[in-house]
Structures are given as structure tokens and as C-alpha cells.
Write a structure and sequence with these properties.
Elements lengths: L1 H38 L1 H5 L10 E3 L7 H21 L2 H21 L3 H6 L9 H4 L5 H6 L15 H4 L3 H12 L5 H25 L3 H12 L4 H4 L3 H19 L6 H16 L9 H11 L4 H17 L4 H12 L9 H16 L1 H5 L1 H7 L3 H14 L21 H7 L6 H5 L11 H18 L3 H4 L3 H23 L2 H19 L6 H4 L1 H7 L11 H18 E3 L2
Antiparallel strand pairs: 1-2
Helix pairs in contact: 1-18, 3-4, 3-11, 3-30, 4-10, 4-11, 10-11, 10-13, 13-14, 13-15, 13-29, 14-16, 15-27, 20-27, 21-26, 22-24, 24-26, 27-29
Length: 560
């Protein structure tokens, strides 16, 4: 009876926390909408966003995509979670990609074929406006930087000048293949952008969490970000960099193909640098993968990146020259008038619209599942041991259900995945598909490392304290890293990495407004955190995601 009372008491506050985080995010969005109206027209005009915090205009409307998009949402709500559990892995990937494409396409068609899809990339500020003028690709690359600054006769259009030449090069090559016009360009962006959902699933599985990937699949297929995935060039950027991270995760696994995967990851990361300057922040998700699995793929990844950097440099474009000129161009335009005091938090409100309230609701679970204590506790214990202190536990740590637990190493070896209430509530459909071997092996290595330190001969342990303490701390740090790798949840890790990247972008001040589109490469990873939501609440949170996307798309005519 006591055990039942403890579990019930722990479960409800967690669900209330989910709701509390979601309501706080909704309040942030509401404040970002209300504040410009309170401040007056003159101040509001300086935002240069008619539907602040979103870049668009308030225009309630419906279209012939309204019916299909509602039908897709209902089908995913009813069948999505079950299919995510039962489908084979390859069929799950295909179903997620096709559903995401249908969802994004239907949302775009709410605005109509021309206004919502084919004409998006053909405006005077977009890439296709410049495609016809590129008659010599080599000359374009050599002279690209000279045309970045504004107020000169041959300045690039807004989007071309604000990015490296890789994005324009993609659309030029598409045109050379005979696939010209906004329709083909838009289709490329939708296919690549929706492919990011598949890449995230592949990443989670490669990190040893297929059950988490299956839990996140319906949320990624029904992401509110699809409003901007169809169609903007940033959807292309998101797809390229997501697959760079996915290949990096695959390369960390033991297998004959890890080297080609690592080189491919480096090529995509390198090309990402020439799609958008801000994509340098994709180093954060990449570092998260390496922290979780090891540094083995680093060298071939760097080789792949250097191949791309070398090619663009040899062609005449130096990345750092372009970056400094873009910063200057940025403040030549409306960015100098947009108030940082609003956009530093208004950007986050716009991002909430893209990732959805369910993603924010899961953030407290993400923080808990990062398990930072596994790192510092082991190092602290080793330091105490080096100082001759008695190794006595400070007290039993507790699981999420409030019950005392034994040391995490033998516990996790005995049962993987963990038996916390959060994980018990998360979808774990195929225990056979859950790969516990990697975590178990890491834990055994951590345990053996600590045991080896304790079993050293006394003559070797009785050296000077000066020599003993650094070695013990280093050993404790390595043991703690192995322990952390075994305990950290990959979905939480990648969601936190995406959040960290967009927060860094926010603080830089180089993205004021339009971040619902610009931060797609980072925000999509935040959606991975929805895999931590309780299984019994999945359909409710999917409904929240779908309603949010439908409201945005039907109330606001977005510019992208």
C-alpha cells in the first residue's frame, strides 16, 4: 500500500509540471502578441513583423488545403502512436517522411498553390530572383563577397546576400538540371526539410534508443514547424545538417561502414557552413553525439569538412570574409531598428510556435534525464579517496518515483533501460528493439575502472598525495563519463543540444525576428524531447501540436 501511495504522489506532480511548462510557453507567446499592441504603432512598426512574434500578417483564412490537413492530423492522432510501435524500422522511417511531407504540403496549400507554395521562393528577396543572372558559376563564386553589401548597383538580394553561396548554388544547379521555377525549388525544400524528421529518428536509434525514436516519430511527422518547412530554404538547411548529425551518430557505432558514414557527415557539415553562417552552431548537436559515444569519427569527419572548405576556398570564396561582410550588411537594413529588448524573448515565443507546446512541456523531463550528477559524483568520490577520506555515501539517491535506489552502476547493469517513473511512462513498444548492450557495456567499463583503481597494490597507492590526487581525479572523471554515457537519455541529450544551439543564436543578437524559420535546423531537435512524455498522454499532446499548427496557418499569412 505504501509503495502505491509513493508512486501516485510522484506521478501527478510530473504531469502537472508538463502542463505548467506548456502554459508558461503559451503565456510567453501571448505576451509577445500583446506587448506590441500596448506599446503603440510607432514602436510596433519598428518590429517589422506584422504578426509579431511571427513574420507575417494577421489574416484569418481557409483554403483548399484545410480539409486535407485536418484529415491528416486526425489520422496521425488515431493511428500514429500505434503504428510507430508496430511498424518495422524501415517502414516507420518511410511512413514518418511521407506523413511529414503530406502534412507540410497540406499546410502550404491552405494559402493556395501560388501564394502558399510555388511563389514562395520567387519573390524579389529570394534566391530564385538571382538564379537567372548566374551565367558563370565560377565567376559567381569568385565575386560573391563583393556583392554582399547593400546600396550598390549589383548587390545581391536580401536572402542571397545574407548567406554563403552554397544556397544560391543549389538552386542554380537545380535550374541547370531543367527543374526551374518555384514549384521545383519548393518541392526540393519540402523533401529535404521533412527528411530531417527521419534523420532525427536515425540518430536516436544509432545512439541506442530506438524506443525513444518510435515515441518521437508521430510528433516529428506532425511538427508545427511544417508551416515553415513548406516552403523555405531553411528547410533545406535543416535537412542537410540533420543528416550530418545522423551520419555522425551512425559512425560512432562499430561496423564496417563507419568511415564512409563519418566522411559523409563531414561533407554535409562542411556544406552546411556554406548554406548559412549560423549553421556553425550545429557543432552543439555534433558535440552532444561525440560526448555520448566517443571521439572515434572525428578525424574522417574533419577530412570531409576540409574537402568542402577547400573546394569553396579554391573557387574564390573565403568564408570569414563573407561572414564579416554579412554582419555589416545585417546592420545596414532593418535589423538596426528592430529592438533587441523585444526580440531576445520574442524570438523564443516564435520558436514555441514552431516546436509546439508539447516540446516545451517535455523540457523539465529533458533536464532530469541528462543525468549530470553521474559526472560530478564519481569525480568527487575519487578526489575524496585520493585525499584519504573514507568513501561513505552521502545518502541513497532516489528514482523519479521517490523510492531509494542502490548505486546506479549495478542497478543499470541489472535492468536497462532504467526503471524510473518517467521511463516507465514513456513508450517502450519493442523491448527487443531497445538496445541495452551499449549502455550495459559502458556501465561495466565504469564499474571495472573503479574496481581497478581500488584493487591496485598498496605500494602503488601509497605514493605522494601530489601524484595521487590528479590521477585519481582523472580516473574518476573517466569513470564518471562512462557512467553518464550509460545513464543519459539520447532523446533528452539531443533535445537539449538543439535548445542550447538556438539559445546561443538568440543571445548573439544576429537573429531578430523570423526565427521560426531561421532556427528550424535547431528547433527540430528540440521536438525529439517529446519522446519523454508519458505514453498515456501522447494523443493529447499530439492534438495540442496539431491545433497549434492549424491556428498559426489559418490565422497568419506567413511570409515564408
Amino acid at each position: 500500500m505504501r509503495k502505491t501511495v509513493v508512486i501516485a504522489a510522484a506521478r501527478h506532480p510530473t504531469r502537472r509540471a508538463d502542463l505548467g511548462w506548456a502554459l508558461a510557453a503559451a503565456a510567453l507567446v501571448a505576451a509577445a502578441i500583446i506587448v506590441p499592441r500596448i506599446m503603440g504603432k510607432q514602436w510596433r512598426d519598428r518590429l517589422y513583423a506584422g504578426a509579431a512574434p511571427l513574420f507575417g500578417e494577421w489574416l484569418p483564412h481557409i483554403g483548399w488545403g484545410t480539409g486535407p490537413v485536418i484529415a491528416i492530423a486526425v489520422l496521425v492522432l488515431v493511428y500514429g502512436p500505434g503504428l510507430a510501435e508496430r511498424l518495422s524500422w524501415r517502414r516507420l522511417l518511410a511512413a514518418t517522411w511521407l506523413t511529414a511531407i503530406a502534412w507540410a504540403g497540406a499546410l502550404a496549400l491552405v494559402d493556395g498553390w501560388q501564394r502558399g507554395f510555388a511563389g514562395r521562393l520567387t519573390s524579389r528577396d529570394e534566391y530564385l530572383h538571382e538564379v537567372g543572372g548566374v551565367t558563370d558559376i565560377a565567376a559567381m563564386l569568385r565575386g560573391f563577397s563583393a556583392r554582399i553589401l547593400d546600396f550598390q548597383p549589383d548587390s545581391w538580394t536580401t536572402h542571397v546576400s545574407g548567406h554563403p553561396p552554397g544556397a544560391l548554388l543549389v538552386f542554380v544547379l537545380l535550374d541547370r538540371l531543367g527543374l526551374s521555377g518555384g514549384g521545383w525549388a519548393g518541392l526540393l525544400c519540402v523533401l529535404a526539410g521533412c527528411g530531417a524528421a527521419v534523420a532525427i529518428l536515425v540518430t536516436l536509434r544509432a545512439l541506442g534508443a530506438e524506443w525513444r525514436a518510435r515515441a518521437a516519430a508521430p510528433f516529428l511527422a506532425l511538427a508545427p514547424a511544417a508551416v515553415w518547412l513548406a516552403v523555405s530554404a531553411d528547410a533545406l538547411f535543416a535537412g542537410v545538417t540533420a543528416w550530418a548529425v545522423a551520419l555522425l551518430a551512425v559512425a560512432t557505432r562499430r561496423g564496417a561502414r563507419w568511415v564512409p558514414a563519418a566522411v559523409g557527415s563531414g561533407l554535409l557539415f562542411g556544406f552546411g557552413l556554406y548554406l548559412s553562417y549560423g549553421l556553425v552552431l550545429m557543432a552543439v548537436p555534433a558535440l552532444a553525439v561525440l560526448a555520448a559515444r566517443g571521439l572515434r569519427p572525428v578525424l574522417p569527419v574533419v577530412v570531409g569538412m576540409l574537402l568542402v572548405v577547400g573546394a569553396f576556398t579554391a573557387a574564390g570564396f573565403w568564408w570569414f570574409d563573407g561572414y564579416h561582410l554579412v554582419v555589416e550588411r545585417y546592420y545596414q537594413g532593418i535589423a538596426s531598428e528592430r529592438p533587441y529588448s523585444y526580440w531576445v524573448w520574442g524570438n523564443l515565443a516564435a520558436t514555441v510556435c514552431a516546436v509546439g507546446l508539447a516540446s516545451v512541456a517535455a523540457l523539465h523531463r529533458v533536464a532530469r534525464e541528462l543525468r549530470p550528477s553521474a559526472l560530478w559524483r564519481t569525480a568527487e568520490a575519487s578526489a575524496k579517496q585520493a585525499d584519504g577520506a573514507e568513501m561513505s555515501p552521502s545518502g541513497p539517491h532516489r528514482h523519479d518515483d521517490g523510492a531509494p535506489a542502490a548505486d546506479p552502476v549495478p542497478e543499470a547493469i541489472a535492468a536497462t533501460p532504467r526503471s524510473s517513473a518517467a521511463n516507465a511512462a514513456a513508450p517502450q513498444p519493442n523491448t527487443a528493439a531497445q538496445p541495452p548492450s551499449a549502455s550495459t557495456a559502458s556501465l561495466r567499463r565504469a564499474a571495472s575502472w573503479s574496481a581497478a583503481a581500488d584493487e591496485r597494490p598498496a605500494a602503488k597507492r601509497d605514493g605522494s598525495a601530489t601524484r595521487r590526487r590528479p590521477a585519481a581525479v582523472l580516473g574518476g572523471a573517466l569513470s564518471g563519463l562512462l557512467r553518464w554515457r550509460a545513464m543519459v537519455d539520447p532523446a533528452a541529450l539531443m533535445a537539449a543540444a538543439g535548445l542550447a544551439a538556438l539559445l546561443l543564436a538568440d543571445l548573439s543578437g544576429l537573429s531578430k525576428a523570423e526565427t521560426e524559420r531561421i532556427w528550424l535546423p535547431f528547433g527540430l531537435w528540440v521536438i525529439a524531447g517529446t519522446a519523454l512524455l508519458p505514453r498515456r498522454d501522447v494523443r493529447a499532446w499530439l492534438a495540442v501540436q496539431a491545433v497549434g499548427a492549424l491556428l498559426v496557418n489559418h490565422l497568419v499569412l506567413t511570409n515564408w
